[in-house]
Amino acid sequence: MEKKDTKKSRYAKLETSQISYLGTRNKTYCQKYSIMDFIGRTKLKDSTKILELFGGIGITSFFIMKSITPSKHTILEIHDDCIERLNERYPNSEILKEDAFTFDRMEEYDYIFIDAALFGQGRLDKFKPILDRIAKCKAEVIITDLGFWKFSFVKKEKWAVEVPIYFAKWKEIFKTFNLNITDAFYTHDFAILCLDRDSTKYTTPVNVVCWEKETSEWRVFLEERKGAFFNGVQEK
């Protein structure tokens, strides 16, 4: 019997266009992009340089551009269907068909967004090339989705104890990449991290926020599914 390549299947979603699964998102994205809206309004500064890794069709870009006017905005994406939409929606941004794992200009940017759905403690071997490069620059970092989220299997009444412990472990991990977690926003399904470079706060507890707000603004991207672009993917 042929042995299944578990590592390959593990990272398959990174090789999948966001268009193929966008229609399956509902409440998760309503919460995710409510957090992104908040981060855009409270964490980002005008006239700064923004780099997005794994740009998809530009939903995160939408909330960045809604809040600030960057002096430079670069989006990396490898799928042609997504790149077409990015070019149409953000003509003044730099859209590059380039692999985030080999991109070597990170030192140019003030903020780096890692928008990969499979980021997690058990997958750092995959993302280490990116984190190693980030460790050498000065950018603040936003990780928009920790991917497989352990608290889907933890009773909610235990979150008050378990969640801070979980993020404290992440804080220790990111210290090795010269990053400090300042804020962690989480829901039942995922978490988003904000990281800066302040090594004096490595021992400061993470500001942990259980997020319940939602926004439907991202759903304008679902409306575009009616065209051939979405190949008949249906909203659920």
Task: Describe the model.
This protein is of the alpha/beta class and 236 residues long. It has one domain: Vaccinia Virus protein VP39 (Rossmann fold), CATH 3.40.50. The protein is built from seven helices and eight strands, in the order ααβαβαββαβαβββα. The protein has helices at residues 6-10, 27-42, 59-67, 80-89, 124-135, 159-175, 220-223, and strands at 49-53, 72-77, 94-97, 111-114, 140-143, 180-186, 191-196, 207-210. The protein has an eight-stranded mixed beta sheet, with helices on both faces. Strand 4, helix 5 (124-135) and strand 5 form a beta-alpha-beta unit. The longest helix is centred in the C-terminal third of the chain and has 17 residues, at 159-175. The protein is globular, with a radius of gyration of 17 Å.
How many strand units? 8
Tell me what the CATH architecture is: 3-Layer(aba) Sandwich
Helix fraction by DSSP (H/I, runs of at least 4): 25-40%
Q: Any idea how many domains?
A: 1
Unreliable segments of 5+ consecutive residues = 1-12, 228-236
Number of helices: 7
Q: Biggest sheet, in brief? A: 8 strands, mixed
- What is the overall shape? globular
Mean pLDDT: 85
Order of helices and strands: HHEHEHEEHEHEEEH
Please state how the strands of the largest beta sheet are arranged side by side.
3-2-1-4-5-7-6-8
Radius of gyration: 17 Å
Strand portion, in percent? 15-25%
CATH topology, by name, is Rossmann fold
Going by helix content, strand content and strand pairing, the class is: alpha/beta
**Which superfamily, in CATH terms, is the homologous superfamily?**
Vaccinia Virus protein VP39
Query: Distance between termini?
Result: 37 Å
The top-level CATH class is Alpha Beta
